[in-house]
């Protein structure tokens, strides 16, 4: 390591005094103007990780669904997975080292992680469409080159595409060709093969409206759509030509506000979906004939996919295990449906893709989805081999099912949740099963739920256990939550410190929206009182304004904890007309 060269270069990417950042759930994320030194240092770290693993490492510059002014960075490990936890600590140390300590921290990491400094290093880089991303990815490149690493800059990519590239390179092309073209071809040919029978029938499942959050998903889907048309024709909205990234659109907006994005033309019963800013999340939705909005989130996506896979597994009859992994945010109705109706084992992990991903690896076939629409399906090597063999050797029906599974394996991006890949899987299943979006939605009815945020002086005073469903500290908070939950039917509530924002998140569900909102409010208040709340105390929902809405009903918007949430249409309905 030429530490003098590092010191010289680092001055050009100086760390602002006193700035402390943490490699969180999805890497570093903050205002773009504070990230130059972090990018340079993540270039350095990627070289060390590459030398240590003797593999290609990825660096993605993105802040996903955050506002356009933010940015972020995360490292991708050799199998296309998120960076190993022990290296997250190294990342945090390196990012926070004062200028003069940088060489020592680099040496420390190399020693602790037993990095062979003579080994070659190769790093691949991708970035989203934020105005700051190009400059910041150049800082990553500066870090890589000053430590003598080789690199390939893919330029604009979705996050899942970068994960795919890393795995392709480290599997010597076995997973696919490490080019954007290779990605389009792999997914599209699996989709076309899988849907052959359905699309011959000429049903009307063929158009889908996609809200691209004014992000990278729009560019990539526009390039890719010719590969899978005419089987499926996608119509892009919020493609970045006019609007601002993630502003009033995208999967995160739709999920958290439970309403459609701006900038999309929805007709009754039309199937629509939204990607987030870096295209690793997807949610579906539609308006019914009465103008009511229906959200189909990650839980329902997991249910659709698991039931399809379970049917195919029964047909091939080979005893392969199927498991579903969720987080505490999964709607109680989805868990009940999966366990009691579908008889599929369900597991709960902490929030964050890496936790779900690792749990899902324990099954022959592991389906994982967060309610927010992030997820994929993992197939073990043994399952893949078995399925491939059955697709060649077995008889008729069995072979047909095995062939479908074979194509599904190729259609999923197994490195990480991928909005484009998930969209194609969902479209294929709906077409093959002849299901409308309403029929899919009707699998079960979501319990009313509410998420709130509480500001506290230090969110780390809250620690949790049992996959974030129980509070351990501060004392008395869990008991208070238990007492509040007991007051309502079908109720559940939990709180956890956010990994991406300086707040505590509160989740509640119960038998009615009114009860859910009361429970969420009461739990917020308990957090405020017992965990050092700051600023304004949580307030019960206030009716802020009433206005006429389509077909003479009323829209009532509520403000709670300073946050706008939900519009209840027809709440007063005809009574006021
Ligand atoms: C990150 C995670 C996402 C998680 C979210 C939780 C990845 C790639 N992304 O966006 O999975 O749901 O954080 O945010 O891991 P929170 O901790 O602020 O609730
Ligand atoms: Mg994202």
From TrEMBL:
<dbReference type="GO" id="GO:0006493">
    <property type="term" value="P:protein O-linked glycosylation"/>
</dbReference>
<keyword id="KW-0007">Acetylation</keyword>
<comment type="similarity">
    <text>Belongs to the phosphohexose mutase family.</text>
</comment>
<feature type="active site" description="Phosphoserine intermediate">
    <location>
        <position position="64"/>
    </location>
</feature>
<dbReference type="GO" id="GO:0000287">
    <property type="term" value="F:magnesium ion binding"/>
</dbReference>
<feature type="binding site" description="via phosphate group">
    <location>
        <position position="64"/>
    </location>
    <ligand>
        <name>Mg(2+)</name>
    </ligand>
</feature>
<feature type="domain" description="Alpha-D-phosphohexomutase alpha/beta/alpha">
    <location>
        <begin position="51"/>
        <end position="90"/>
    </location>
</feature>
<dbReference type="InterPro" id="IPR049022">
    <property type="entry name" value="AMG1_III"/>
</dbReference>
<feature type="coiled-coil region">
    <location>
        <begin position="380"/>
        <end position="407"/>
    </location>
</feature>
<keyword id="KW-0597">Phosphoprotein</keyword>
<feature type="binding site">
    <location>
        <position position="280"/>
    </location>
    <ligand>
        <name>Mg(2+)</name>
    </ligand>
</feature>
<dbReference type="GO" id="GO:0004610">
    <property type="term" value="F:phosphoacetylglucosamine mutase activity"/>
</dbReference>
<protein>
    <recommendedName>
        <fullName>Phosphoacetylglucosamine mutase</fullName>
        <ecNumber>5.4.2.3</ecNumber>
    </recommendedName>
</protein>
<feature type="domain" description="Phosphoacetylglucosamine mutase AMG1">
    <location>
        <begin position="297"/>
        <end position="434"/>
    </location>
</feature>
<dbReference type="Pfam" id="PF21405">
    <property type="entry name" value="AMG1_II"/>
</dbReference>
<dbReference type="GO" id="GO:0006487">
    <property type="term" value="P:protein N-linked glycosylation"/>
</dbReference>
<feature type="binding site">
    <location>
        <position position="505"/>
    </location>
    <ligand>
        <name>substrate</name>
    </ligand>
</feature>
<dbReference type="InterPro" id="IPR005844">
    <property type="entry name" value="A-D-PHexomutase_a/b/a-I"/>
</dbReference>
<feature type="domain" description="Alpha-D-phosphohexomutase C-terminal">
    <location>
        <begin position="471"/>
        <end position="523"/>
    </location>
</feature>
<dbReference type="InterPro" id="IPR016055">
    <property type="entry name" value="A-D-PHexomutase_a/b/a-I/II/III"/>
</dbReference>
<dbReference type="InterPro" id="IPR049023">
    <property type="entry name" value="AMG1_II"/>
</dbReference>
<keyword id="KW-0175">Coiled coil</keyword>
<feature type="binding site">
    <location>
        <position position="278"/>
    </location>
    <ligand>
        <name>Mg(2+)</name>
    </ligand>
</feature>
<dbReference type="GO" id="GO:0006048">
    <property type="term" value="P:UDP-N-acetylglucosamine biosynthetic process"/>
</dbReference>
<keyword id="KW-0460">Magnesium</keyword>
<dbReference type="InterPro" id="IPR016066">
    <property type="entry name" value="A-D-PHexomutase_CS"/>
</dbReference>
<dbReference type="Pfam" id="PF00408">
    <property type="entry name" value="PGM_PMM_IV"/>
</dbReference>
<keyword id="KW-0119">Carbohydrate metabolism</keyword>
<dbReference type="InterPro" id="IPR005843">
    <property type="entry name" value="A-D-PHexomutase_C"/>
</dbReference>
<comment type="function">
    <text>Catalyzes the conversion of GlcNAc-6-P into GlcNAc-1-P during the synthesis of uridine diphosphate/UDP-GlcNAc, a sugar nucleotide critical to multiple glycosylation pathways including protein N- and O-glycosylation.</text>
</comment>
<dbReference type="InterPro" id="IPR036900">
    <property type="entry name" value="A-D-PHexomutase_C_sf"/>
</dbReference>
<feature type="domain" description="Phosphoacetylglucosamine mutase AMG1">
    <location>
        <begin position="178"/>
        <end position="283"/>
    </location>
</feature>
<dbReference type="InterPro" id="IPR016657">
    <property type="entry name" value="PAGM"/>
</dbReference>
<dbReference type="GO" id="GO:0007283">
    <property type="term" value="P:spermatogenesis"/>
</dbReference>
<dbReference type="Pfam" id="PF02878">
    <property type="entry name" value="PGM_PMM_I"/>
</dbReference>
<dbReference type="GO" id="GO:0005975">
    <property type="term" value="P:carbohydrate metabolic process"/>
</dbReference>
<comment type="pathway">
    <text>Nucleotide-sugar biosynthesis; UDP-N-acetyl-alpha-D-glucosamine biosynthesis; N-acetyl-alpha-D-glucosamine 1-phosphate from alpha-D-glucosamine 6-phosphate (route I): step 2/2.</text>
</comment>
<feature type="binding site">
    <location>
        <begin position="370"/>
        <end position="372"/>
    </location>
    <ligand>
        <name>substrate</name>
    </ligand>
</feature>
<feature type="binding site">
    <location>
        <begin position="496"/>
        <end position="500"/>
    </location>
    <ligand>
        <name>substrate</name>
    </ligand>
</feature>
<feature type="binding site">
    <location>
        <position position="276"/>
    </location>
    <ligand>
        <name>Mg(2+)</name>
    </ligand>
</feature>
<feature type="domain" description="Alpha-D-phosphohexomutase alpha/beta/alpha">
    <location>
        <begin position="118"/>
        <end position="169"/>
    </location>
</feature>
<keyword id="KW-0479">Metal-binding</keyword>
